[in-house]
From TrEMBL:
Residues 2-222, 229-479 form the ABC transporter domain. It comes from the Bacteria. The keyword ATP-binding applies. GO terms for molecular function: ATP binding; ATP hydrolysis activity. The keyword Transcription regulation does not apply. This is Ribose transport system ATP-binding protein. InterPro entries: AAA+_ATPase, ABC_carbohydrate_import_ATPase, ABC_transporter-like_ATP-bd, ABC_transporter-like_CS, P-loop_NTPase. Belongs to the ABC transporter superfamily. Keywords: ATP-binding, Membrane, Nucleotide-binding, Repeat, Sugar transport, Transport. It comes from Rhizobium leucaenae.
Amino acid sequence: MVGLIGENGAGKSSLLKVLSGTYQPDTGDILVGGQKRTFTNPAAAASAGIGVVHQEQSLVTNLSVAENILISTRATMSGNKDGKVRFGIYNWRKINDDAAEILERIGSTIDPKSKVEDLSFADRQMVEIAKALQITRQPGVQPIIVLDEPTSVLEDNDIQQLEHEVRRLKEIGSVIFVSHRLDEVMKFCDRICVMRNGEVVGERLTSEVNEDELFRLMTGRHAETTSRERKKSFSDSAVVLDLERLEAKGKFSGISLKVRSGEIHALVGTNHSGREEVCRAVFGAEEFDAGTVRYNGKVVSRPSLRGSAYGGIAYLPSERKVESMVAGMTVAENLQLTHRGEHASAIFVSPGARREKTKEWISKLSIRPPIPDADIASLSGGNQQKVVLAKWLEDPKLSLLILDHPTRGIDPGAREDVSKQVFAACEKGAAVLLIADTLEEAISLADTITVMRDGEITATFDLNSGSIPTHAELVGKMI
């Protein structure tokens, strides 16, 4: 298995799109099994045995899980040898049974008849992986499975099941594994290729390299610590967010917690634990049925998106492409979507002031390419995430920052940049409600950790007391 790593914008995704037939190269050759191949479209790549799980999901949301998997099957199988179509009539029993079988292989219990639009983001990722694994059923070719950030939205138990399947795939084909989690790359891969600025700058055997050297090859600099120095108690700090017995039927109940000025308060739990729904209810993206929300001491009976955005509350959701950015608009335009601030005079926006402020944030967060007028859709996923975060940090009235997986899909260097800006917001007095990407991240960043299971709080840990919970302790309260 070959690992492929690099910073956001290093060219990894573009290279994979060439390999999958989405892009065509200007020069150079692609050799599969020692033979030169040309892929003019994804179907041509699939026929050569190449299956790709892209970082950005490509499911048809108004179709069922089985139908989405069927699409990938029809792209790779010729004629009707798979038995799913006969005389133009679909054999839905076989389609659903085959989908269930491939999902079971990766440890998923998703109903094949479910609509994709009704699934969580993590469950959709499992469907993407199942689609790619269909390539292993194609006769006459040695499969090449490309996994582009396959674990970015998965929980520990899902990752363990995926690891088992990936190791099985190595026995029947080749695997290219792309990840920003260097510990995963070291664990899964035999050999690692490092890209920077569109070029391969290093290739190492996993047995002969460590994470520090990989970081240096990726970024050109040495890694810095992003853990906070826990020097103070927040007991005397102003309470920014106070939740009392908050409840949304079927999602969460009895949620009581406080988040204070300058504090990072992490919510941890498995998927469907209710942590995301609590964050969305606080911001006004979802309704709640009972309980009280107090913001800076004042009761907010029904939080609204407009009221939150203009009242100093920021929310970075997990699905940035759907809820946080507008493709087709520039980086500068996306940056000023919620807070025009000094960019505007009355109803008019000053393009010059907007460009200068955008350049400032591009420098602070190392956004690539550093072009204010670039279409945000042309940026890598990690750089899009930086723009979305900057959009909220731009607010001079920022008081509460709600972050749902803020470092998902971004490289270690970018994670440092994002963490520094979040710390800076805390230093200015903002409170942070965080859903971390991993338990290790929650432990390293947060002052307080609240654990949720089945919509309820099971434990709270004050990390400033000197007692740091272990990974095992947290997991024990989550499951």
